[in-house]
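Handout, section B. The chain below has 1210 residues.
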Amino acid sequence: MLVIRNNRNIILPDEMSGLSHLTALDLDGCMLHTLPPVVLKLPNLQYLDLSGNQVSLPDELNGLNNLKVLRLRDCNLDTVPPAVLNLPQLEELDLFGNSGIHLPDGLAGLTNCMRVLKLEGTDMTTVPPVVCKLTQLEWLDLSGNQLQTLPVEIGQLTNVKHLYLSNCKLHTLPPEVWRLTQLEWLDLSGNQLQTLPAEIGQLTNVKHLNLSNCKLHTLPPEVWRLTQLERLDLSGNQLQTLPAEVGRLTQLEWLDLSCNQLQTLPAEIGQLTNVKRLDLFDCQLRTLPPEVGRLTQLERLYLYGNQLTKPPAEVCDQGIAAIRQYFDELERSKEAVSAHLKVVVLGETMAGKTSLVRTLNSGKSTLTEEEDRTHCVEITQLAPDNNITFKVYDFGGNKVYHLTHQFFLTPDAFYLLLVNIGEYTCSEQSYQKHVGFWLDTLNARVPGAVVSIVWSKKDLCRKHQERRDKTTHIQTKISQQKDMWEKQTRKDAGQRDLREKDPSKQTLRIVGDVLELRVSVKPKSRFLVSKSPRSLKKIKRFLREKANDDELFPRLIRTLPRTWVEFEQLIKHQASTETPEQADETGASVETSPPEESQKPKQHWLTMTDCKRIGQLAGLSAESLEPVLSYLQQVGTILRYTDIPELKDLVFHDPPALIELFKDLFHHDTSALFSTPRLSHFTSAQLSTFQSDLCDCGLIQKEVMACLLPPKVNPDIITALMQHFGLCFEVQAKDNTDPSKHTRQYKIPWYLHKQMPEELMSIWPKNVPEEQEQLQLMCNIRGFCPRGLFQRFSVRIHPLVKDRVDWKDGVMAYRQDYPVLVCSKPVADDTYITIATRGKLAQADEMWGVVHPLLEVLVQLLQEWPSVRCSLHVTCAHCIKEGRDRPYQHVLRDRTTEDDRDVRCPGVKKTASTSADLVYRPARLSAVGRGSSLTRRRPSQQEHDCYKMTSDPRGVALIISNTIFLEPENNRQGGEKDLDRLGEICDKLKLHQEIKENLTAQEIEVVTKDVSKRDHSSYDCFVLFLLSHGTETGVLGTDGQHVSVDSIISSFQACKSLVGKPKLFFIQACRGGKPSRTSQTGTEASYGSTEATASQPPPSAAPATPAESPDAGETSPSDSDRLVMYATVHGRVSWRDINTGTWLIQVLADVINEHADTKELHDMLWRVNAGVADLTAQYETQEYKQQPEVTHTLRKRLYFFPQAAVDQNP
């Protein structure tokens, strides 16, 4: 096969007539106006694709006596050219997209040979009579036309096996359609059928039936008698019930019921023992039948968009295996009902939050001393009735605690925002302080969550009119704020943003009128809820009403195995018992005497041994413990961090206790912080130094931190948690008394308040030196910016930089011997976070490698804030050098072959320019074999320089292999050979392989998202092998549609259980239509057993503008700890041998089998690069080559067998 597609106005030389054995020629999208004469000199041509050309076909075309397939898609044809009517062997004619084309009667002359006719999207209002005369047709595609009826003559097509009638305007079908008993594939999707006749039962051979989006309310019983069905698509209808007869369809492999109004499923669905995929998303299901767990062949189950309580959504999110375990445990231990609602109380300092919570808890007025106000977070459990338990989070209002608040904001909580009515004034500043900031925070972090506004201290505002005015003002401002959110969401839906946006995503739901709480003012610095029970009853009633509102909290009530409920209760009791060494046999709570001196040490976490012991008390075996731990982790009852070595074997069963530890380190009063008796052994001078170190430099010594923590609390565990949350990083300082020793310190950027030190100006002068250039990347956060974002970002980049100096809103450091300046700057209503380095223009590629990984850290951090609006830019280097106050910001994107060497500076009316090397990101940021790792470490940190790789299996290896396509000519012959070699790779690397074959583009997206949502905590890595056709814009599904590689990678960005672990992606697909040659002439060829193919992108495909590859979106960069290996470079094809498989997989398997025991990953991939590059495909006088490409943001070395690292670095 010779593929020359998308080469505009290409000239085909006469010498091509020597290709006497050429059987397939693809000239799609070449903008031809006449057929090159040499094409008529290819007598053995069987396949000719002229799609996307405005070409006229000469009569001499009928000389191609062997032509069997002719594709004329989107050729703007008015009629079928006469020459086509005289092709004696023509079996397939594709006329897709030729609007208004006329089919002449002469087409009937092809009756004996014509098997496939594709007329999709030709705007036909009636089916031309000649179509029904082609009685040997086996495939007829009439989709996307304006057909309101079908002629009765359609019944003459008795041999048709594939009939496509999707997205027409059909309301009914003639009886003759149901008599086409040879039909195997019938697509009626997107029509207005509403009902189906009983005659559908005559299609006894149909295997694929698509009835999606047909507005069907019911189905005739005869549908369930089509027992040969393998795929049934009923999605997008209005079905309310599914009959038990569905169990008859025992051959079904794929059943799609998504987007219906189903509230239950029949138990008989468990009889579909061959089903591999079951789509149930966006129905109205509340429960699943236990029989779903018996579908042993089920590989993919999609349930999102339902409000499931049995099993709970948190179980469903973990996949079919977790659902099976849930039902198994439910059957073994009976059912129990759990109803918990998380209530989060927010507001400014001294708004009355703690008094409200304590009064609700005690049922009587409660004084709150100012010195007793909440530090960080306090959590209380309330049970105002026997049905619902409220877990109330009381958040400290001081801004020093905002950094830790965000970790406890979850979408399923009920938020109460308390506003001090006495302090509130009807001004923009007051609104933003008391209300606007908090609503922006919630909307950015948990869009769609439920929040209510509560006035407090009503007695401080005694005038009724004043209260009314303030209430009206706050309601008006809230309405304006919500309108702004919705406007921004609509705007973002039409733009490419930093992350993939969901246009239908809800903003914050603000419910109820503004409540009022009467608070009596007592002596200075005290307040309490009124002794009258009126306000207390009002708030309790309000909480119960909202909690029981099914629209607000549809998943409040969950059905759980009784053993799970008992385990959860024992875990909670364990929170008040003594340490594991002293725990009693029952695990029950132990009463302690009030005085602090007599209390036993609090247990802040459990080991897995503790959990197994508690599990036995609840009736859970060690094997059935993981599902309940995963569930409790999902709902927030416990916390686990299995990806952090110091924490992987610990279960934090009491989140309040965990926060209690942070409370002593994040205190708004640093004087009180250092007044604890536990520091009494230090001198006053030392304490003063400690306090100034923290306030001025954000530094705290490990020894001091240990004293601030409760007794017997390991500070290493606390610091590991703090570093995980992005709250601090470790630094080492020389001991003043002994320079040979070092003191371990931790820097908490939140405490920094000073500006950039003046001495740094010598390292980074204001004006860029003449011989240097500045490469600056910028993230523009539009509108609301989360508090503490920059501080957490500065912590996250610590492993990537060295010799750093920090101040309030900046960091100066070194990376790969280049200076790096990271700054945060407010600009009007926006926030600019910039990452810059300087060097010579010739070093531009290295400079990109310095700054870009730091930007990816920021992007990963922003994934935690789904509604924050942001975009990525490259600051114009010319504007920077000219010292312009408002430099131009280029959109961050990859460089393409169309880009010039220089880029004009728009900031000066395009009269100046800068090098494109400083504007467009290199396609290969850090390729294998460049001689240095992405991150240079100090030798003293060498022991931490390798990824943990000890789990068995090492991780999941998802293999997606497309070999059979809907268009048979696109089948990847020989592609199945790769599966055997991939099996060798997985066995060698101890990977658990999951194979998915022949997926459409949508299925690829769904499968990858499904796998990314799993819990990978027990694994050390993730690997994806994706094998299919590809183009410059992505890889292809079996339906010919494109999927962006970057979107696939992005689906693993938010997987918390893969954070910090290597994620490897191997993409075996073409990345364009050009073969790589050893000489400058010739074209892509197919000969012997080797072929290279590339597929056409859709007409609407946007130019490739990826994060690191031409498959990506322009502002969707991938996360850290990621490696992508492409089979070929941008714009080129890859090669496949039909006897042995693709070149990349062949060589990759050989290298891994030989070297994985002893070599690091980069070393192996360098050998793969060289091995593939050495291969040659020869045809005639031409030689064809292939060069793989690797990009990565790995931060450490990767040995699949860690002993190799020890052997090489003794």
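Note. The mean pLDDT is 82. Compare this with the example in section A.
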